[in-house]
Fold this sequence. Notes:
InterPro entries: Cro/C1-type_HTH (IPR001387), Cupin_2 (IPR013096), Lambda_DNA-bd_dom_sf (IPR010982), RmlC-like_jellyroll (IPR014710), RmlC_Cupin_sf (IPR011051), TransReg_Diox_bact_type (IPR050807). By secondary structure, the chain is α+β, with helices and mostly antiparallel strands.
Amino acid sequence: MQDFDVGARLKAIRQQNGMSQRQLAEASGVPHGQISMIETNKSSPSVASLRKILGGLSLGMSEFFEPDVVEDDKPFYTPSELRDLTSRLYSEANGFEGTITLKQVGNARLHGLQILHETYEPGADTGSDMLEHPASEGGIVIAGEIEVTVGGRKTVLKAGDSYLFNSREPHRFRNISDRQAIVVSACTPPYL
């Protein structure tokens, strides 16, 4: 995979939308300095931070990373056809090595439902900025274990365990174990 410049892509989209860094920061609810640091590639955003920023642009991660993908409405997908939402965010060039991989089934926006195959390497974390968005989400841990925080509640889920909650509550996913965790999840309406 060729290198993907997250900072340059964010700057180009911001400018296409006629927004200053301050305007995007205000629309996203993030500090102005964070936008600047990402655009100059001095900082690599977490999944939570990037999603928050893209929310200020009314853009999903799929459109951010794969703007030229032709949308289709087919019903079946092979593993190689899943839409990669994170490998360009968490690449060795950005100082990460396979931290989190989120792969989406088909066109989530078309169906109003996002289904993800999530892989969390040891130490992976969606970020200290908790995720919050207007949706409902649930998932099943397929392998390994993952610490899930929802509001003031926190637990470690193991293979076979599942979760379902209102995504308006602040939440976070972390792999605190020494082995890979795999989760299959769904979110409606789509968030990433």
